[in-house]
Design brief:
two-stranded parallel ribbon; mainly alpha
């Protein structure tokens, strides 16, 4: 895996033109939808409690360089001071509008700004909070390899992994780097759009507490995409 991973930055050279093409096409073809989303969502958030529309947070970017991203606020004002950062399905700090935004992943719409800036990609490993990323680096040697490409708005782990086991998510991220291609990105984007349409995101019962985890050997998964799709299909039956 190490030798193949060393070639990933070259194979990922398509990322910037791919992201730019998707951004331009999406805004040209779906301009009324974009205008509606950027108008209605902020108004609904503000009407809910007259609080800020956006939530700004530092995340770990490509090659370990931190950056700030914006999301639509889904929790009550000062939620970070009233409980842990990790949330669950029934977290009382999540607003009514926030629950809808999380299930449709529309709370992440402002991250498109980071894609325009070249700090994120449409598809890639999830951009983790800086402290969480550093904790996982200590837990999993080689964890930093997942950021050989820009973090993504969606990705293999985001689409197929319904749990919150960081070891499992890391395996998905590394499998994505192995199969990196524009065709895979298109496939994952279409699956992500479908998840948004059916409100299939964010059904978490709570993230794993990192402090309770110990080191574990990470075994590569062969044909992970096919296995993940099969498991996903079995859960839906």
């Amino acid at each position: 895996m190490t030798d193949r991973n060393s070639r990933q930055p070259k194979r990922g050279a398509y990322k910037r033109w791919f992201d730019f093409s998707v951004l331009v096409l999406a805004h040209v073809l779906l301009l009324p939808l974009w205008l509606a989303l950027w108008t209605v969502i902020p108004v609904l958030i503000w009407l809910g409690d007259r609080g800020p529309v956006f939530y700004r947070q530092q995340r770990m970017g490509k090659d370990g360089v931190p950056f700030y991203l914006l999301k639509f606020r889904t929790m009550i004002v000062d939620a970070d001071n009233q409980g842990p950062a990790r949330t669950t399905d029934d977290d009382p700090r999540v607003t009514r509008v926030g629950k809808i935004l999380r299930r449709t992943a529309l709370d992440e719409l402002p991250e498109v700004i980071s894609i325009w800036q070249g700090k994120m990609s449409f598809v890639g490993p999830r951009a983790l909070e800086v402290d969480e990323h550093r904790a996982l680096e200590e837990l999993m040697p080689g964890f930093e390899k997942r950021l050989q490409v820009r973090p993504g708005l969606t990705g293999l782990a985001q689409v197929f992994d319904k749990g919150d086991d960081p070891f499992e998510k890391y395996r998905y991220d590394m499998e994505y780097l192995e199969k990196l291609s524009p065709f895979l990105d298109i496939r994952l984007l279409l699956l992500s759009v479908w998840n948004t349409l059916v409100a299939g995101w964010d059904h978490r019962s709570g993230k794993v507490i990192l402090e309770k985890l110990g080191p574990r050997r990470i075994e590569p998964i062969e044909d992970n995409l096919e296995i993940a799709e099969s498991a996903n299909s079995d859960r839906d039956q």
